[in-house]
């Protein structure tokens, strides 16, 4: 109440001012004081007051003159004025006070209860006036808004009606009442069906629907009338020659200001050619799916069958290296490298089979990604040295719950890719904090950067796809599965992998792993075949 109940006290006697302030101190009013008539008039010009307590005797002008000026101004004419006087009950004073617009007067010395009671009355009236003014303004705003909405609705209704009656478009246009019975068709309807107006209105339009679709289409349309905002269906319409063609029927409802349905606006669009083309493409897609399934089955069987003899061959070569120390070391080492290469190819085929069948499972444990990365890179230093690539490490401890074997595969495939296409230039491998990318637990980031041949911008979206090899012929090797397997393993951990590359400037692969990888149930697929998004983030 203090700031919305201002009171102006006009008195040049400090003791009287203190007295009035003291009598009203516990009421919480906002009391503004003025010691002269001029100062009082200035205050009235600057703000609005709930009440003016005005002493009759002032140094520059008397209170009656001040009151006359206040009441003569438009803004302050309704402000109540109570005179403070020591004149007693002199009739001449009382008459003059009322003549200049005062509403009351108080005698000095001022009675506390009387002052409080009168001030409280005028303050309450002031507050009520403010409320009434606010309510009146709100009503005016609401009224303007309602008129604007009504005008807008009239314009929209006019525009909709104009569109409804448009005859130039090639589609069939029709309208129906709230009950679904047709009340208008454009010229295209009559040209196509050969029906006349009386035969089409109401529910007669159903006679133009092919007999095999008629009951289904009518039932669906009746059901949509009760709750649907939009009705859409396909049906065959009979032409004037009796031949049916597929049409897409789409209907939207029109509402009034209360939300009630006033009409329906519908179209029929000929989609016969498109539907037949789609049916043919669907058949081709099913054949392609069967071919892909046959290929995946073959890869699964072949990789399992190849794994056993390759393992035996590798063991035999290792034993031969130990028992025949006089054998040529370079040839033995080459044979072992080729065997290991074949083993990695077969392992990749096995992983591809697990991924496409949804059987890629994670064995989670607490790991330090930096330590795993260091171990993998150390095992690959000879391979990097043969390619002329120096591997630079920048590793910071970054722990989380991941699958060690799968993380080793990720690092191996990314580093192998960098060695293969790094053109004999340095390779940088870094592990650091990934920020909040992994949710509440944070994430870790693995970055593998080479300075080799790079990738064209148009080829970047295909980098992580199966069997993709984007480098020139002389650089091609393997089956093009390494980066695809990286993406799937990272996605299984709930993370993502991206690539930035420029031709001739190398490539940078960035992998982000949440610290708490979620292990799905064993009977749940990590990612169903054919449901992958065409992105590179694995999400």
> What's the arrangement of strands in the largest beta sheet?
2-1-3-4-5
Which blocks of ≥5 consecutive residues have pLDDT under 50?
521-539
User: According to CATH, what is the topology of the largest domain?
Assistant: Heat Shock Protein 90
Shape: flat
Number of strands: 17
Supply the number of structural domains.
4
- Please give the share of residues in helix: 40-55%
Beta-strand proportion: 15-25%
Distance between the termini: 58 Å
- Counting helices, strands and paired strands, the structural category is alpha/beta
CATH homologous superfamily annotation of the largest domain: Histidine kinase-like ATPase, C-terminal domain
For the largest beta-sheet, the strand count, sense and barrel status come to:
5 strands, parallel
Q: Determine the number of helices (DSSP H or I, runs of at least 4 residues).
A: 14
CATH architecture of the largest domain: 2-Layer Sandwich
Calculate Rg over CA atoms. Answer: 45 Å
Q: Assembly state here? A: single chain
* CATH class identity of the largest domain: Alpha Beta
Query: Could you tell me the mean pLDDT?
Result: 81
Features:
five-stranded antiparallel β-sheet, alpha/beta, Beta-Lactamase, 17 strands, Rossmann fold, 539 residues, 46% helix, flat, 4 domains, five-stranded parallel β-sheet, 14 helices, disordered C terminus
